[in-house]
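Changelog entry

Holo records now carry the ligand SMILES as an explicit input line rather than a separate metadata file. Below, a converted record for zinc ion, shown in the new format.
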Amino acid sequence: MRDSQPSFILGVDIGGTKVATLVVDGAGAPVASLLVPTDRTSPEATLSGVLTAIEQTLAQANLRPDQLHAVGMGVPGRVNSVSGEVDLAVNLNWHGIALGATVSERLGVPCFLENDVRAAALGVYRFCLERPVASFAYISVGTGISAGIIFEGHLHRGARGMAGEIGHISLERSGPRCPCGLRGCLETLAAGPAIASQAQIALAAGRPSLLQQLDHQQLTAADVYAAAAANDALACEITTQAGRYIAQAIHQIALTCDIEHIVLGGGVAQARDEFLRPIRRELAQMAAESPLVESLIDPSAVRLVPAGYAAGCWGAVAVAEAGVAATLTLETVPQQEEVR
Ligand SMILES: [Zn+2]
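Structure line, unchanged by the conversion:
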Protein backbone atom coordinates (compact mmCIF):
# COMPACT_ATOMS: atom_id res chain seq x y z
CA MET A 1 0.00 0.00 0.00
CA ARG A 2 1.32 3.44 -0.87
CA ASP A 3 1.44 6.30 1.62
CA SER A 4 -0.80 9.14 0.46
CA GLN A 5 1.72 11.68 1.83
CA PRO A 6 5.40 10.79 1.51
CA SER A 7 6.74 12.07 4.80
CA PHE A 8 10.25 10.74 5.30
CA ILE A 9 13.26 13.02 4.89
CA LEU A 10 16.72 11.80 3.92
CA GLY A 11 19.81 13.82 4.86
CA VAL A 12 23.22 13.09 3.34
CA ASP A 13 26.45 14.59 4.64
CA ILE A 14 29.18 14.12 2.04
CA GLY A 15 32.63 14.52 3.57
CA GLY A 16 36.13 14.12 2.17
CA THR A 17 36.59 10.88 4.13
CA LYS A 18 33.07 9.69 4.99
CA VAL A 19 29.52 9.80 3.67
CA ALA A 20 26.91 9.86 6.45
CA THR A 21 23.18 9.46 5.92
CA LEU A 22 20.13 9.87 8.14
CA VAL A 23 16.43 9.18 7.50
CA VAL A 24 13.84 10.80 9.75
CA ASP A 25 10.10 10.16 9.79
CA GLY A 26 7.36 12.78 9.55
CA ALA A 27 7.71 13.49 13.29
CA GLY A 28 11.46 14.07 12.92
CA ALA A 29 12.48 10.82 14.65
CA PRO A 30 15.52 9.02 13.19
CA VAL A 31 14.69 5.68 11.56
CA ALA A 32 17.97 4.75 9.84
CA SER A 33 21.51 5.98 9.42
CA LEU A 34 24.69 4.89 7.69
CA LEU A 35 28.35 5.85 7.71
CA VAL A 36 30.57 4.66 4.84
CA PRO A 37 34.00 5.72 3.55
CA THR A 38 33.97 8.22 0.67
CA ASP A 39 35.12 6.56 -2.56
CA ARG A 40 37.61 9.08 -3.92
CA THR A 41 39.05 6.99 -6.73
CA SER A 42 37.36 9.31 -9.26
CA PRO A 43 34.64 12.03 -9.27
CA GLU A 44 32.23 9.51 -10.85
CA ALA A 45 33.06 6.87 -8.22
CA THR A 46 32.40 9.40 -5.44
CA LEU A 47 28.97 10.18 -6.92
CA SER A 48 28.20 6.51 -7.43
CA GLY A 49 29.23 5.81 -3.81
CA VAL A 50 26.82 8.47 -2.57
CA LEU A 51 23.96 6.92 -4.58
CA THR A 52 24.80 3.47 -3.21
CA ALA A 53 24.87 4.82 0.36
CA ILE A 54 21.40 6.32 -0.22
CA GLU A 55 20.04 3.01 -1.55
CA GLN A 56 21.54 1.09 1.37
CA THR A 57 20.02 3.54 3.86
CA LEU A 58 16.56 3.17 2.29
CA ALA A 59 16.93 -0.62 2.36
CA GLN A 60 17.94 -0.47 6.03
CA ALA A 61 14.85 1.67 6.78
CA ASN A 62 12.71 -0.65 4.63
CA LEU A 63 11.54 2.35 2.60
CA ARG A 64 10.84 2.90 -1.07
CA PRO A 65 12.08 6.14 -2.69
CA ASP A 66 8.48 7.26 -3.20
CA GLN A 67 8.02 7.34 0.56
CA LEU A 68 10.56 10.17 0.75
CA HIS A 69 9.30 13.74 0.84
CA ALA A 70 12.71 15.22 -0.02
CA VAL A 71 16.45 14.72 0.15
CA GLY A 72 18.90 17.26 1.57
CA MET A 73 22.65 17.16 1.07
CA GLY A 74 25.62 18.93 2.61
CA VAL A 75 28.70 19.20 0.41
CA PRO A 76 32.15 20.47 1.43
CA GLY A 77 32.52 23.17 -1.19
CA ARG A 78 30.78 25.81 -3.25
CA VAL A 79 27.31 24.75 -4.29
CA ASN A 80 24.55 26.42 -6.27
CA SER A 81 21.55 25.70 -4.11
CA VAL A 82 19.20 26.94 -6.86
CA SER A 83 20.52 24.80 -9.76
CA GLY A 84 21.52 21.90 -7.50
CA GLU A 85 25.05 21.90 -8.94
CA VAL A 86 28.27 21.50 -7.02
CA ASP A 87 30.46 24.24 -8.53
CA LEU A 88 33.62 23.23 -6.72
CA ALA A 89 34.39 20.71 -3.98
CA VAL A 90 38.18 20.41 -3.88
CA ASN A 91 38.28 17.48 -1.42
CA LEU A 92 35.92 15.45 -3.62
CA ASN A 93 37.55 16.55 -6.89
CA TRP A 94 34.11 17.70 -8.04
CA HIS A 95 33.85 20.52 -10.56
CA GLY A 96 30.41 21.31 -11.97
CA ILE A 97 28.68 18.11 -10.82
CA ALA A 98 24.89 18.06 -11.27
CA LEU A 99 24.40 16.35 -7.91
CA GLY A 100 20.86 17.58 -7.18
CA ALA A 101 19.50 16.56 -10.59
CA THR A 102 21.23 13.16 -10.49
CA VAL A 103 19.85 12.25 -7.06
CA SER A 104 16.44 13.70 -7.87
CA GLU A 105 16.18 11.71 -11.13
CA ARG A 106 17.38 8.50 -9.49
CA LEU A 107 14.87 8.69 -6.60
CA GLY A 108 12.06 10.70 -8.18
CA VAL A 109 11.96 13.17 -5.27
CA PRO A 110 13.18 16.78 -4.84
CA CYS A 111 16.81 17.12 -3.75
CA PHE A 112 18.23 20.25 -2.11
CA LEU A 113 21.92 21.09 -1.76
CA GLU A 114 23.89 23.27 0.60
CA ASN A 115 27.48 23.83 1.61
CA ASP A 116 28.19 21.46 4.52
CA VAL A 117 28.92 24.08 7.19
CA ARG A 118 25.91 26.23 6.17
CA ALA A 119 23.82 23.03 6.30
CA ALA A 120 25.13 22.20 9.79
CA ALA A 121 24.32 25.78 10.86
CA LEU A 122 20.74 25.33 9.74
CA GLY A 123 20.54 21.96 11.52
CA VAL A 124 21.93 23.26 14.81
CA TYR A 125 19.65 26.30 14.61
CA ARG A 126 16.61 24.17 13.83
CA PHE A 127 17.16 21.20 16.15
CA CYS A 128 19.55 22.19 18.98
CA LEU A 129 18.57 25.61 20.29
CA GLU A 130 16.43 25.85 23.42
CA ARG A 131 14.55 28.84 21.98
CA PRO A 132 14.40 30.66 18.63
CA VAL A 133 16.90 33.52 18.27
CA ALA A 134 16.92 36.42 15.79
CA SER A 135 20.50 35.89 14.72
CA PHE A 136 22.71 32.85 14.99
CA ALA A 137 26.14 31.69 13.84
CA TYR A 138 27.60 28.21 13.70
CA ILE A 139 31.37 28.13 13.38
CA SER A 140 33.08 24.94 12.26
CA VAL A 141 36.74 24.53 13.20
CA GLY A 142 38.31 21.50 11.55
CA THR A 143 40.66 21.13 8.57
CA GLY A 144 39.34 24.56 7.62
CA ILE A 145 37.27 27.19 9.39
CA SER A 146 33.98 28.62 8.18
CA ALA A 147 30.64 29.73 9.49
CA GLY A 148 26.96 29.56 8.69
CA ILE A 149 24.97 32.64 9.62
CA ILE A 150 21.22 32.65 10.12
CA PHE A 151 18.99 35.70 10.34
CA GLU A 152 15.33 35.36 11.34
CA GLY A 153 15.41 31.63 10.63
CA HIS A 154 16.92 32.01 7.16
CA LEU A 155 20.40 31.03 6.07
CA HIS A 156 22.39 34.02 4.80
CA ARG A 157 24.33 32.95 1.70
CA GLY A 158 25.42 36.35 0.41
CA ALA A 159 25.74 37.58 -3.17
CA ARG A 160 28.14 34.81 -4.24
CA GLY A 161 27.18 32.10 -1.77
CA MET A 162 30.34 32.84 0.21
CA ALA A 163 28.90 34.44 3.35
CA GLY A 164 30.59 33.00 6.42
CA GLU A 165 33.99 32.17 4.89
CA ILE A 166 35.66 33.53 8.01
CA GLY A 167 38.62 31.16 7.70
CA HIS A 168 40.08 33.74 5.33
CA ILE A 169 39.84 36.75 7.61
CA SER A 170 43.46 37.85 7.69
CA LEU A 171 44.46 38.39 11.33
CA GLU A 172 48.27 38.45 10.95
CA ARG A 173 49.49 40.18 7.80
CA SER A 174 52.97 38.68 8.28
CA GLY A 175 51.61 35.24 9.21
CA PRO A 176 51.82 31.98 7.24
CA ARG A 177 50.80 32.10 3.56
CA CYS A 178 47.27 30.81 2.98
CA PRO A 179 46.18 28.93 -0.20
CA CYS A 180 43.81 31.86 -0.84
CA GLY A 181 46.86 34.07 -1.45
CA LEU A 182 46.81 36.21 1.69
CA ARG A 183 48.92 35.78 4.81
CA GLY A 184 47.82 35.03 8.34
CA CYS A 185 44.25 33.95 7.56
CA LEU A 186 42.38 32.53 10.56
CA GLU A 187 42.67 29.04 9.03
CA THR A 188 46.46 29.25 8.89
CA LEU A 189 46.50 30.16 12.60
CA ALA A 190 43.79 28.12 14.32
CA ALA A 191 42.49 25.28 12.10
CA GLY A 192 43.54 21.69 12.84
CA PRO A 193 46.53 21.50 10.43
CA ALA A 194 47.83 24.87 11.71
CA ILE A 195 47.76 23.70 15.32
CA ALA A 196 49.56 20.45 14.43
CA SER A 197 52.12 22.36 12.36
CA GLN A 198 52.87 24.85 15.16
CA ALA A 199 53.53 21.92 17.52
CA GLN A 200 55.75 20.18 14.95
CA ILE A 201 57.87 23.32 14.46
CA ALA A 202 58.32 23.81 18.23
CA LEU A 203 59.18 20.12 18.75
CA ALA A 204 61.72 20.20 15.90
CA ALA A 205 63.31 23.21 17.63
CA GLY A 206 63.72 21.04 20.75
CA ARG A 207 60.97 22.48 22.96
CA PRO A 208 60.37 20.12 25.90
CA SER A 209 56.84 18.72 25.77
CA LEU A 210 54.80 15.58 26.36
CA LEU A 211 54.32 15.65 22.58
CA GLN A 212 58.03 14.77 22.09
CA GLN A 213 57.02 11.15 22.85
CA LEU A 214 54.77 11.02 19.76
CA ASP A 215 55.67 10.65 16.09
CA HIS A 216 56.04 14.30 15.11
CA GLN A 217 54.95 13.73 11.51
CA GLN A 218 51.68 12.09 12.63
CA LEU A 219 50.76 14.78 15.18
CA THR A 220 47.19 16.06 15.08
CA ALA A 221 45.37 18.96 16.70
CA ALA A 222 43.64 16.37 18.92
CA ASP A 223 47.08 15.34 20.29
CA VAL A 224 47.90 18.98 21.06
CA TYR A 225 44.58 19.55 22.88
CA ALA A 226 45.06 16.26 24.81
CA ALA A 227 48.52 17.45 25.92
CA ALA A 228 47.03 20.82 26.90
CA ALA A 229 44.50 18.93 29.05
CA ALA A 230 47.52 17.39 30.82
CA ASN A 231 48.90 20.93 31.42
CA ASP A 232 51.74 20.60 28.93
CA ALA A 233 53.23 24.10 28.66
CA LEU A 234 53.90 24.04 24.90
CA ALA A 235 50.46 22.60 24.09
CA CYS A 236 48.75 25.15 26.37
CA GLU A 237 50.64 27.96 24.66
CA ILE A 238 49.46 26.80 21.21
CA THR A 239 45.82 26.17 22.19
CA THR A 240 45.64 29.46 24.10
CA GLN A 241 46.86 31.38 21.05
CA ALA A 242 44.45 29.48 18.74
CA GLY A 243 41.63 30.35 21.16
CA ARG A 244 42.61 34.02 20.99
CA TYR A 245 42.41 34.02 17.21
CA ILE A 246 39.02 32.28 17.20
CA ALA A 247 37.78 34.77 19.81
CA GLN A 248 38.89 37.60 17.49
CA ALA A 249 36.87 36.09 14.67
CA ILE A 250 33.84 35.72 16.96
CA HIS A 251 34.26 39.37 17.93
CA GLN A 252 34.29 40.40 14.26
CA ILE A 253 31.17 38.36 13.49
CA ALA A 254 29.43 39.76 16.57
CA LEU A 255 30.28 43.35 15.55
CA THR A 256 29.27 42.81 11.93
CA CYS A 257 26.05 40.91 12.45
CA ASP A 258 25.07 41.46 16.13
CA ILE A 259 24.78 37.72 16.67
CA GLU A 260 22.64 36.56 19.56
CA HIS A 261 23.91 33.02 19.86
CA ILE A 262 27.07 31.27 18.64
CA VAL A 263 27.71 27.52 18.50
CA LEU A 264 31.09 25.98 17.74
CA GLY A 265 31.56 22.59 16.09
CA GLY A 266 33.83 20.72 13.68
CA GLY A 267 36.65 18.22 14.19
CA VAL A 268 38.91 20.42 16.34
CA ALA A 269 35.97 21.36 18.60
CA GLN A 270 35.74 17.68 19.56
CA ALA A 271 38.47 18.53 22.09
CA ARG A 272 35.42 20.00 23.90
CA ASP A 273 36.29 22.08 27.00
CA GLU A 274 39.98 22.18 26.18
CA PHE A 275 39.00 23.85 22.88
CA LEU A 276 36.31 26.15 24.31
CA ARG A 277 38.06 27.35 27.48
CA PRO A 278 40.76 29.53 25.83
CA ILE A 279 38.13 31.07 23.50
CA ARG A 280 35.82 32.00 26.38
CA ARG A 281 38.78 33.24 28.44
CA GLU A 282 39.83 35.61 25.66
CA LEU A 283 36.25 36.81 25.10
CA ALA A 284 35.89 37.46 28.85
CA GLN A 285 39.17 39.41 28.77
CA MET A 286 37.95 41.49 25.83
CA ALA A 287 34.63 42.12 27.58
CA ALA A 288 36.50 43.24 30.72
CA GLU A 289 38.42 45.78 28.61
CA SER A 290 35.50 47.01 26.53
CA PRO A 291 31.92 47.83 27.54
CA LEU A 292 31.06 47.58 23.82
CA VAL A 293 32.28 43.97 23.67
CA GLU A 294 30.56 43.27 26.98
CA SER A 295 27.28 44.53 25.56
CA LEU A 296 27.62 42.43 22.39
CA ILE A 297 29.13 39.12 23.51
CA ASP A 298 28.22 37.00 26.49
CA PRO A 299 31.07 34.43 26.62
CA SER A 300 28.70 31.89 28.21
CA ALA A 301 26.39 32.22 25.15
CA VAL A 302 29.23 30.85 23.01
CA ARG A 303 28.61 27.10 23.21
CA LEU A 304 29.78 23.82 21.77
CA VAL A 305 27.58 21.65 19.59
CA PRO A 306 26.27 18.73 21.76
CA ALA A 307 28.84 15.93 22.12
CA GLY A 308 28.46 13.25 19.44
CA TYR A 309 25.80 15.25 17.58
CA ALA A 310 25.76 14.41 13.85
CA ALA A 311 25.56 18.08 12.84
CA GLY A 312 26.21 17.31 9.15
CA CYS A 313 23.36 14.79 8.77
CA TRP A 314 20.84 16.78 10.79
CA GLY A 315 21.91 19.81 8.80
CA ALA A 316 21.17 17.99 5.55
CA VAL A 317 17.72 17.06 6.91
CA ALA A 318 17.17 20.74 7.78
CA VAL A 319 18.24 21.72 4.23
CA ALA A 320 15.60 19.38 2.78
CA GLU A 321 12.91 20.77 5.10
CA ALA A 322 13.89 24.37 4.29
CA GLY A 323 13.91 23.51 0.56
CA VAL A 324 10.42 22.05 0.74
CA ALA A 325 9.16 25.07 2.71
CA ALA A 326 10.72 27.51 0.20
CA THR A 327 9.17 25.60 -2.73
CA LEU A 328 5.74 25.79 -1.10
CA THR A 329 6.23 29.56 -0.57
CA LEU A 330 7.25 30.04 -4.21
CA GLU A 331 4.23 28.09 -5.41
CA THR A 332 1.89 30.40 -3.50
CA VAL A 333 3.47 33.69 -4.69
CA PRO A 334 2.06 33.75 -8.29
CA GLN A 335 -1.43 33.02 -6.98
CA GLN A 336 -1.19 36.04 -4.67
CA GLU A 337 -0.01 38.19 -7.59
CA GLU A 338 -2.92 37.01 -9.75
CA VAL A 339 -5.34 38.17 -7.08
CA ARG A 340 -3.78 41.62 -7.26
ZN1 LIG B 1 43.10 32.61 3.27
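Spot-checked after migration. The radius of gyration is 21 Å. Residues 335-340 have pLDDT under 50 and may be disordered.
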